[in-house]
Structures are given as C-alpha cells and as structure tokens.
Amino acid sequence: MTTPLTQFKSDTKESTVDFDHRKWMQTALKGYENTRGGVEETFGDFDQAKRTGAAIKWEAIENLDTLLEEMTQNLEARGTKICWAGNGAEAVDYILRVAEDCDAKKVIKSKCMTTEEIHLNPAMQKAGMEVVESDLGEFIVQLRGEDPFHFVFPAMHLKRNKISKVFEEKIGSEPSNDPEELCMIARSYMRTKYCEADIGISGANFGVAETGMISITENEGNARLTTSLPKVHIAVMGIEKVIPKLDDLSIMLPLLGTAGAGQWLTGYNSMIGGPRQEGEVDGPEEFHLVLVDNHRTRLLADPEQRDALRCIRCGACLNVCPIFKNIGGHSYGTTYQGPIGSVITPHLRGLQPYKHLSYSSSLCGACSETCPVKIDLHHHLMRNRRDAVVEKGGTMERFAMRQFSKVMARPKLYRSCEGLMRLGEKCWRPLKGKKADPLKAWTQTRELHPPAPKSFHKQWKEKQQGKS
Ligand code: SF4
Predict the structure, then answer these.
(1) Is the predicted pLDDT of residue 468 greater than 70, yes or no?
(2) Ligand 1: which residue has its CA nearest to atom 2?
(3) Cα of 24 to ligand 1 centre, how many Å?
(4) What is the pLDDT of residues 114-129, one digit of tens each?
(5) Fewest C-beta atoms under 10 Å: which of 304, 315, 393, 441?
(6) Could you tell me which CATH number the domain at 47-294 has?
C-alpha cells in the first residue's frame, strides 16, 4: 500500500540522483536569494521590519475571532456573500452551489494555494466545468497535469524547452525557445478565456478587518482580470490571512515581495471590498468570500505552534532550505512544501502519516532566520518530532534512547562501552551490505566510519602526561 511516507521515499530517491536538476534548482533559488539581499538594504533596518510584520500577524492571530467578524461585517455591508467553511468539503460544496446558481460552464482562476489545498479544480471539472489557471506558472503545471512545484514559483522546475513542448502539445502553438514569445502564447490563449468565463476565482493574500477588504498581490495582472471581468467573483481565503488595519499593508506588502521574490513590491496590488457598487464602471455583479478553516483552528489551539499561522506564504523558507533545494517540491507530496509545509501539514492532514516531513530537515535554522514574520520553524519541526513520538513512539526506539541517555549521563559507563563499540563495529564490518546486515537501512546511503584508533579522552590524557 502506498502511504505518504513510502511515496516520499521513492520520490526523493529519484529526485536526489538527478544532479542536473538539483543544480538547476539551486541556481534558480540562489538567484532569488541574491536579489533579496539587495532589496533588504532599502529597508534600512530589515530586522526591525520583520519584527513589525511578526507583531502585526501576532496581533491578528491572537484576535482572530473578533477581526474576522469585523472584516466580514464590513464586507457584508457592501453586498459580499460570506461562506464560513469548516473544512475543504464545505468550501467546495458552497462554490459548486454558486456555480450551479449562475449556470457556470467556464471558470478562470488566479493563483490560490487554498484552492489547491481543498482540491477545488478536480471537483469543478468533475461537475462539468472548464477551469483555466491564469497565473503563468500555474497554467503551465495545469497543462502538464502536475501539482505546483513551489507554492510561489509553481513551474520553476521547468526549462523553456519543456514549456514550449507542453504548449505545442496542449494548445497547438509553434515551438519557441524565447521566454517572451512563450509568455505571449499563454497570454493570447488566456485573453479569450477571461472574456468567456462565468466565474473568476481568486485567493487573497490578506484580509483587512478595519475596512472589510481583501488584498491580492501578483506580478502578471491576471488576478485583476480574473476578479473584474467575470460576472461572479469568488475569493477563497484561509482564516489566518486577516490583519487588523489597512495601514498594516504598508509593511506586510513590501515584506511579502522582498522575502519571497526579492521585489520591493509585487507588480500589481489590488484591494477588493465587495461586488460592483452603484456608479462603479467595473467589477463583478456578485462577490463571494469563502473563509476556510480546514484544521487551522486546531493549530490555533496549540499555544506552542500557533505562530505558524503567521505565515504569509512568501516562499522564502523554501528558497533557503537545503532539503528543498535537493529534493524539490513534488517530493513532499503536499500542498505546502518546504519547512513551513513540513510544520503545518501534520496539523492539517494528520501527524502520524506526515511526521516524516519533520525529520526531513537538517535543522540548520536557515528557514527561521529568513522568515519575514519570524516563525520559529526549525524548533517547530522538533516539536512535531517530539509530539509524534509522545503520541505513538516505537517501543524499540524508546528503549534504545533510554539506554543511550543512561550511558551518556555516566562518564565511567560511557568509557567502558567504548571497547564494546569497537568490538561491535569489527563484528559488523564483514556483514556490511549483505542480506544479514542489521544496519542496512542506515548504511545503504551513508558511510559508517570506523571508530578512531584512540578515543579523544585517551589522546587528551596522554597529552597531559606528555606521552604525545
Ligand atoms: S514560514 Fe515564513 S518564510 Fe516560510 S513561507 Fe511562511 S512567511 Fe515565508
């Protein structure tokens, strides 16, 4: 039976031996990191900006109930319809009902990871609708039938020739190796899709409680067309995206652009506060906001880890993570990849089936260091490990760790075990790699070095006695 763990193991086995691909990813991610360095300087004190961003999101998460109420009341006052979805199925049901009510056949979407999380596209397609992703990266992976590789740069794993090939096969374009031409192919294909769409679906980067608005930030202008051309606009937003004040965006938007993509600000920033009002020239006739919980309140109830809800999905922790850089996004098998994905997926989908993600980390702390809202990511990975063992630890593992801690806490016992360790290593070596090798799972991909001929303690003692 395939489990998330067995799938992860087989995917990572494949991705880690593809050295060309690893090099390609590392070069691309290094590029974002370098650009970000330059933009950070323009803040004057970037760490202060991060502290401010963290404080804003902290306030939002601590007051989530009242802020959500404030935001929805303001939105409803301007004619927005609100759906409170406890889980993905409720969100999908609501959206399908709206689609049915307006007899929708065609849907255009801008980037929204929450819709990936609730598996909206397959549900809409199953109901007979055509769904087209309008973000270029999302469009490319959609044509390839793949999930996004990185939640900010969904198609970063693909070189131009592969993009050209999928365009050729799926939308009948001429082959091209020119990035501008490839963009134009996608653009001209999508233009008609915007005009034909009955519904536009978007995400929301932030929800502003004070004014009752959602904020969408993007680089291609596709979200603007998605949210304003079709007659019905549905925005899908995780409940943790709310922030208290409009002013807060003055720090959150630059932080988001800088941390993830090394941009001072993303190209287009839109604020949406309801459907088209009287006297306005554009905008949809109907605006629905679907607020998705989907286990976020479970994370909120955990005082140790609730700061993970501060995440603004900038993607910076993926860009610096040595594991992501080598295994790539698809290996995770989750909606949210990288360190933040490894932290929150066990909360969103279950600790036991996804605990392995918290072990796929070097715990170097680069993710926590880079996070613009100061989420303690690498410690959360350790907390997940701890919780997984407390909830369902292996008897052998517990026994081994108990014996290990006993030995490590008693220097005399530790020293007397040295001889045993050397003997054990000598007996094991002839079995190495053979069927009877008890350490096969470990040594298949790692080298077990023989112990040093003399222990450090012995060498030190000899040095003190002037023997060496
Ligand atoms: S955890 Fe921090 S660095 Fe990672 S995506 Fe979220 S905000 Fe960005």
Answers:
(1) no
(2) 371
(3) 22
(4) 999 999 999 999 999 9
(5) 441
(6) 3.40.50.10420
